[in-house]
Amino acid sequence: QHHHLNNHELQQLVDPGFQSLDINPKDGLLEHDELSKLFDMRDTDGNGNLSREEFGAHTGLDFLFKDPLFDHFDTDHDGVLSKDEFVEKPFAEMNQNGDSEVSRHEFDHFYTQLLHHINQHHG
């Protein structure tokens, strides 16, 4: 039975995501560089793309929205995420004020909205 999550529950899924990304430095801001390095780290075979498996290792295999999130980012539907799809586009969308970093608020807002949208349309 698929259960539609409310915004509070979505928020609880999103927040640890920010914590796990904001590492270098851990300053409550996501630098473009942090996301770029994360991509390279997750791209374990070094082919410049994230496969579904590599993405799953990033989100956690039991993460409820792993597949719809992958599909959302895979805008050209080639079955892998390029750095452009996973880093550049989402970063630009999250980064409402156009500086080179994303605040926790911007991150939480972006992902809560995104998961809310997915939650309404999948299940």
Automatic annotation (TrEMBL):
Keyword Oxidoreductase: no
The keyword Calcium is assigned to this record: yes
Family annotation (InterPro entries): EF-hand-dom_pair (IPR011992), EF_Hand_1_Ca_BS (IPR018247), EF_hand_dom (IPR002048)
GO molecular function: calcium ion binding
Segments forming domain EF-hand: 30-65, 69-96
UniProt keyword list: Calcium
Pfam families listed in its UniProt record: EF-hand_7
Descriptive protein name: EF-hand domain-containing protein
Annotated source species: Magallana gigas
UniProt lineage: Eukaryota, Metazoa, Spiralia, Lophotrochozoa, Mollusca
